[in-house]
């Protein structure tokens, strides 16, 4: 049985023993990259992570395996307070899936690496650019003591990249815009103003992002929550 003293090799061997072809086939329907997948669900990987505990050094050996489940487990068991900007950039070099990106984005925010957002946004690779906007979306929820001005400042990145038509980028840009707008009354007005500008754009991607964000940011439930 695996535990806190287990090596990366032992953990990978255990993960391989849980391989499920049916589960791999099911994952494909959710757009999960399955070329190296073993078919283990994220809730089950989180349970395994609780057994193995956190081990920052082991994280990078698990990651280097290129196995989907080992990489997800690496994210669940790294130590955010130890994560450096260079290490985050190194992980991002291998991003090829929305689920990896979105989990990593939460961790990067927990690790106080929001300073990487502009660099990720400037990167032309689809999943690296998605990381920037997934981080903004995460920051809007989790960086509760951060001044609203910081989040509002990131709206410039939303505007700059709202025309990127790639599926995993445009959805993350939209997500970031909506989350900033829902963060507080102070951030709602500039986010809604940008959403309305984008909704009137001649670019079809920007227009979709804007219209969808306007719909949520003007919803009665959203407005009522902001007044609390």
Core attributes:
15 helices, single chain, 228 residues
Describe the fold and architecture.
- The protein is an all-alpha fold and 228 residues long.
- It has 15 helices and no strands.
- α7 (98-110) packs across α9 (126-142) and α12 runs antiparallel to α13 (185-199).
- The protein is elongated and about 55 Å long.
- 39% of the residues are buried.
Content of β-strand = under 5%
- Tell me the number of strands: 0
Mean pLDDT: 96
- Low-confidence segments, given as residue ranges, are none
**General form:** elongated
Topology:
Layout: H1 8-17, H2 21-28, H3 42-52, H4 56-64, H5 68-77, H6 85-92, H7 98-110, H8 117-122, H9 126-142, H10 148-153, H11 155-161, H12 167-183, H13 185-199, H14 204-217, H15 220-227
Helix pairs in contact: 1-4, 3-5, 4-5, 5-7, 7-9, 9-12, 12-13, 12-14, 13-14
Short description:
With 228 residues, the chain is mainly α. Helices cover 70% and strands 0% of the residues. The mean pLDDT is 96.
């Amino acid at each position: 049985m695996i535990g806190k003293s287990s090596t990366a090799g032992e953990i990978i061997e255990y993960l391989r023993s849980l391989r499920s072809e049916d589960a791999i086939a099911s994952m494909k329907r959710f757009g999960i990259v399955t070329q190296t997948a073993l078919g283990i669900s994220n809730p089950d990987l989180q349970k395994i992570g609780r057994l193995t505990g956190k081990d920052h050094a082991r994280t990078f050996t698990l990651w280097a395996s290129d196995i989907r489940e080992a990489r997800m487990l690496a994210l669940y068991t790294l130590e955010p307070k130890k994560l450096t900007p260079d290490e985050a950039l190194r992980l991002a070099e291998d991003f090829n899936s929305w689920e990896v990106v979105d989990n990593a984005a939460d961790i990067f925010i927990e690790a106080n690496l929001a300073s990487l957002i502009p660099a990720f946004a400037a990167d032309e690779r689809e999943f690296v650019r998605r990381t920037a906007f997934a981080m903004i979306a995460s920051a809007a929820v989790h960086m509760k003591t951060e001044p609203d001005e910081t989040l509002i400042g990131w709206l410039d990145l939303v505007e700059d990249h709202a025309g990127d038509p790639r599926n995993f980028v445009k959805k993350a840009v939209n997500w970031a815009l909506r989350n900033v707008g829902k963060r507080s009354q102070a951030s709602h007005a500039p986010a809604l103003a940008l959403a309305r500008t984008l909704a009137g754009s001649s670019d079809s991607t920007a227009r979709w992002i804007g219209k969808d964000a306007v719909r949520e940011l003007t919803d009665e439930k959203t407005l009522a929550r902001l007044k609390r």
